[in-house]
Amino acid sequence: MARFLVTGGAGYVGSHTVLALLDRGDEVVVLDDLSKGHRAAVPAGATLVQGRCDDPRAVEAAFARGPFEAVLHFAALSLVGDSMRDPMRYIGENVAGVTAVAGAAAKAGCRKFVLSSTAALFGFPDRIPIDEEQRLEPASAYGESKLLCERALAWAEKVHGMRFAALRYFNAAGADPDGRAGEDHDPETHLIPLAIGAALGLRPPLTVFGDDYDTPDGTCIRDYVHVTDLAEAHLRALPVLEERSVRYNLGNGTGYSVKQVLDTVARVGGRPVPHGYGPRRAGDPAALVASSRRLREETGWMPRFPALEDIVRTAWAWHAAHPRGYAGR
User: Dihedrals φ, ψ of 224, to 5°?
Assistant: First the structure.
């Protein structure tokens, strides 16, 4: 049994990772300001310290509940479109959060750090699936902020000996298969919950942005990884930090188009997804799929829910049981 600090542990991927840690018998302290996360998403058994990662008093209060085996850092602003409207806020807050928490970890003698990074570091990639050798050229302020976070952690390694793992992924999806946690964003921007909400009558009809891409059905192709599998990947990266720092791209290896997602939601839910079509969004590539070959080979990680239908089924169960999200619990 070990003790871990999970920043952003009241959020979507963070809360599922807290569940994974608790399920294997670890102790968890969550640092979250609840601006995007939910108090009800913090599982029983975890300790919540409410506060921002760039608030020295909150960070100090969290580390006072250590010592910690490692920090798993999820707290961040994460909307690509929003980052292009307010780039300085994204770069400032995301980098400040990482540097504050990593600095406190080094001071406390915690030398392992797992960063929830993003495959948006690669912008418009040269080839699909995206592997770790491709050039880093973010096309958004969000992607740039995560690249700067990775660079800051590289300096923490050089100066303080802090080993880090940066996991670069795109679209977390699905919900805890036991129904203990799910996806609840405000505003919601992710395709699968928007499609499910439209099918359930909880949201307006969906707008598909563009149907003339150079893809088999004309709609964008994206990578979807089950949130429970993402949580497991973060845990799998921890033992590697005994030896070295790592950067892993993380995807299913198979992309699904918007139309495929809508068809799958309709099939799983037994009802159509009301939707229409609009123009392309500026900056949307035709296809984005990340490789996870290095992660699989070096850690033995294998997704339990690689099929889109399985991902959607767990998401549907969560949203059907929680039509108001965590507010209804």
Answer: -125, 125
For residue 283, give Cα distances in angstroms to 32, 127, 138, 139, 258. 31, 17, 11, 8, 16
Query: What's the pLDDT at 253?
Result: 83
Non-local (6+) Cβ contacts of 297 within 8 A are none
Span between the terminal Cα atoms of the chain, in Å: 30
Position 1 scores a pLDDT of 86
> Which CATH entry fits the domain spanning 3-169+225-250: 3.60.20.40, 3.10.129.10, 3.40.50.1820, 3.40.50.720?
3.40.50.720
- Distance from C-alpha of 168 to C-alpha of 289, rounded to nearest angstrom: 11
pLDDT for position 329: 64
From the candidates 12, 142, 213, 224, give the one annotated as an active-site residue: 142
> Kind and range of the H or E element at 32?
strand 27-32
Mention every residue, 6+ apart, whose C-beta is less than 8 A from residue 233: 167, 169, 248, 250, 292, 295, 299, 301
- For the chain, 329 residues long, the average pLDDT of each consecutive 10-residue run is 97 98 98 97 97 97 98 95 94 98 98 97 92 94 97 98 96 97 95 98 96 96 97 98 98 93 98 96 86 97 96 98 88
- Is residue 277 part of the annotated active site? The answer reads no
Is 32 within 8 Å of 7 (Cβ atoms)?
Answer: yes
Q: If DSSP codes are grouped into helix, strand and coil, which group holds residue 84?
A: helix
